[in-house]
């Protein structure tokens, strides 16, 4: 707990972010290069789907990230509401555009995969509809956290939305079990282990790690951006009122 | 040449597969570039305004 608190200091966080960023960026580039090679060249075509199965290596990791980023965002929102720490709040705000992009990609690549395999771009079944709801939750979060002049007010409303919307995450995960859907059930995260062939599982996991590295990299960039933006705001308000306030974000600069 | 053409054809699924990969690449690169540029712009503005603040303070103590 003591150590967690140390990282919650914005100055210490900035120092850490500057050290981590080049490494996370390099790891992301390497993992995605390897992942693309495995996905497009080294992995076998599917016995039923042929080459179309390669869409999976973008679609499935993007869908995993859509859920993972939302979970991170909900956890940060919970921490922001309980401990009122600005960094948790900023992390949630920084995460939502990244999650929205991954959800959008999961929806569109799924549609492009569904057309040749199912014969339709879209069906209103439980899995597809719940992921579309997730996309709207992300958009709502982005809009709400930027809707007020005072960022702290908007982010409290956005944090509540993120927490309430979290009920959708288990619904998405279990939708293929609870309801009859056109979407196939999970073949990786299931009881009894993955049923997918290793030659396909490995590229899938490498791509997923690459996307995770991308998320960490862009999240750190966006947190740095938001920290600077909020400090600027405090400085400008201070300049207007003739005094420099000693808010937690400015202290120590 | 034939091997490249066969690869690009993706067993007849080219028109579904390449848009999926292309769109993913474009969306991820755009978000990365936008985030990076915004981060650098804000940090520069902040450095600028902190320099101004220090200058202002020095003038006050001299006066």
What's the short version?
The complex is a heterodimer of chains A (253) and B (63). By secondary structure, chain A is mostly helical.
Low-confidence stretches of chain A: none
What is the residue-averaged pLDDT of chain A? Answer: 89
Average pLDDT taken over every residue of chain B: 90
Number of helices of chain A: 8
What does the model show?
The complex is a heterodimer of chains A (253) and B (63). With 253 residues, chain A is mainly alpha-helical. Chain A contains 8 helices and no strands. In chain A, helix 3 packs parallel to helix 8 and helix 5 packs antiparallel against helix 7. Chain A is globular, with a radius of gyration of 21 Å. In chain B, 90% of the residues lie in helices and 0% in strands. At the A-B interface, helix 3, helix 4 and helix 8 of A face helix 2 of B.
Key descriptive features of the protein:
heterodimer, A: 253 residues, mainly alpha, 8 helices, 75% helix, B: 63 residues, 2 helices
Secondary-structure map:
The complex is a heterodimer of chains A (253) and B (63).
Chain A: H1 2-7, H2 10-42, H3 56-83, H4 86-118, H5 126-145, H6 151-165, H7 168-178, H8 198-241
Chain B: H1 2-9, H2 14-62
